[in-house]
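A protein record pairs a chain with a discrete description of its three-dimensional fold. The shape at a given residue is found from the number at the same position. Here is what such a record looks like in full:
>
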Amino acid sequence: MAEILDGKVVAAQIRSEVAEGVARLKSRDVPVRLDVVLVGDDPASTTYVRMKQRDCEEVGIESRAHRFAADVSQEELAALVEELNGDTTVSGFFIQLPLPAGLEALPLVSAIDPSKDVDGLSPLSAGRLAVGLPSLLPCTPHGVIQLLKRSGAEIEGKEAVVIGRSNLVGKPLAQLLLRENTTVTICHSRTKNLPEVARRAELLVVAAGRKEMVGAEYVREGAIVVDVGIHAREGGGLVGDVRFEEVEPVASYISPVPGGVGPMTRAMLLYNTLEAARASSGL
């Protein structure tokens, strides 16, 4: 039976560490503040922002939301990004995606000062990650690394396969795995003989965005399996990109859905906010 990569437990550890760090900065009169730009009334985005604000409250980070109707202009959002970049009381900020139709996310995300890019998604942040320069790391990929390391899963020197090549997860995760001295293969929808390639992996990370795509035929005996996907299950509940019940007996470690990578993503946003505050204060 596989050991469970429990994101709830590890995320709680990180939140505790962040709370201690925030308290130390506040004792030296250093503000720690996370702002979010929320456009429109998408229920999932609204819920996610509310959860992030609740997380901030738990660890002592001030949080402010800038809310706009879906018909806000591109220019008004760009002006806000410029304003937040220049506001020394704002440690970091992010734009909740996706944006409503008619608005372009890339120019706005690209304009975020890398020192405040707590999502780690701007092209400048991605470039710094790619060449090994210090940067705020994207939350989900960094969360995967922290989940593995803090759970005792040895990954250095292992052959890793990442299924998914998105800018959000697949590409930056491959970069981070290289930093951890793994040998990385990135797979995608055009990969030939995908199950065969996946079975080479001692560490298999599935971020394909396809509900319960990966079964036991993809998994090498004793592999570490990380499921980044999240989907609604018919009849209620959530599932990932991996058929958990089928894969769990084969794996050595496996992350569940829910309760695996999801809590880590939220925790790393808090971590990045603290790191941004530390860097801006020189502490």
